[in-house]
Amino acid sequence: MNAIHTQVRSALVSWVAIVVAAVLPAVASAGTTGTSKPTVLLVHGAFAESSSWNGTAARLLAHGYTVVAIANPLRGVKSDATVVAEVIDSIPGPIVLVGHSYGGNVITIAATGKANVKALVYVAALAPDVGESAAGLSGRFPGSTLGPTLAPPVPLADGGKDLYIQQDKFRAQFAADVPVGEARLMAVAQRPIAEAALNEGSGEPAWKTIPSWFLYGSLDKNIPPAAHAFMARRAGARGTVEVKGASHVVMISHPDALTKMIEEAAAQTAN
C-alpha cells in the first residue's frame, strides 16, 4: 500500500508540474488581451480539487473574466504559497485571489508583497495571522466535527502523513447541501492534505494590506462560523456574507453568491 501510494503521489507531483508548465504561458497570453477585468485566481483547499470551482468559474467566464483554478499541492503552507506566488508572478495584470478552506492559509502569504493582487476573497476559508495554523484557528471556537470523520492517516515515505475524510462521512461533514450523487463523487476525488500542513504556522498576512471579502456557510462543520466571523472582523473585511444553511463547500452549493462577491471585489478595487 505504501509503495502504491508513493507511486501515486509521485505521479501526481509530476502531473501538477506538467499542468503548471502548460498553463502559465496561456495565463500570460490571456493577460494581454486588453480586457479591463482582473484575472480571478482560484485556490482550493483540503479534501477538494480544482473542479470544486466549476460553477463559479463558468459564471465568471460568461461575464468576461479570465479565470485560473490551480492545483494546490496541499503539502505545506509556505511551499504551497510559493507555487501560488509563481502563478501570480506569471500574470501581467490585476488579480482577485480567492481561497477556499486551507486555501485561505495559502493565499494569505502568497499575496504578501504582490502589487498586482488587488483583492482577497476568503470562501469558508482561514485567514491566519503570523504564527497561526489551520488546526489552531479551526479549534479556537467550538463546532468543528472534522476530527472524528478523518480516515486513518496514510504514512508517507518522508515520514509524514496524508489525511482524507472517510467517504461514508464525507457528505454529512463536508458537503451536506450538495446533491448525494455529486457529493459521493467528490468523496472519491478528494485530494489529501499533509497532516503537517494543518499545523504549520503562517507568515506575514496579506490581508493586513490588501482589501478582503469573506463568504461562508452557517452550517460549516469544518471551520466554525464563529471563527469565520472573527477572522472577517479582524481583517477589516469590506464585505462579509454568511449564507444560511450552507455547508463548508459554499462555492459549490451557492456559486451565484460567490460570483457576486468576486465581482464586487473586482469593481471596488479597480484602478
Describe this structure in words.
The protein is α/β, with parallel strands linked by helices and 271 residues long. The protein has one domain (23-268): Rossmann fold, CATH 3.40.50. Helices cover 43% and strands 15% of the residues. The protein contains eleven helices and nine strands. It has helices spanning 2-30, 54-62, 77-90, 103-110, 134-138, 167-174, 180-189, 195-198, 225-235, 250-253, 255-268, and strands at 39-43, 66-70, 95-100, 117-123, 154-155, 161-163, 193-194, 212-217, 239-243. The strands form two sheets. It has a six-stranded parallel sheet, with helices on both faces. A hairpin with a 5-residue loop joins strand 5 and strand 6. Helix 3 crosses helix 4 (103-110). 44% of the residues are buried.
What CATH architecture would you give?
Answer: 3-Layer(aba) Sandwich
Helical stretch tally: 11
Strand content: 15-25%
Which sheet architecture does the biggest sheet show? 6 strands, parallel
Mean pLDDT: 90
E-strand count: 9
Work out the helicity level: 40-55%
Task: For the record, give the distance between the C-alpha atoms at the N and C termini, rounded to a whole number.
Answer: 53 Å
Order of helices and strands: HEHEHEHEHEEHHEHEHEHH
Radius of gyration in whole Å, from Cα?
17 Å
Query: How are strands sequenced across the largest beta sheet?
Result: 2-1-3-4-8-9
Low-confidence stretches: 1-34
Q: What's the CATH superfamily, by name?
A: Alpha/Beta hydrolase fold, catalytic domain
* Count of distinct structural domains: 1
Assembly context of the chains: single chain
CATH class: Alpha Beta
Helix vs. strand class: alpha/beta
Give the overall form. globular
If you consult CATH, what is the topology?
A: Rossmann fold
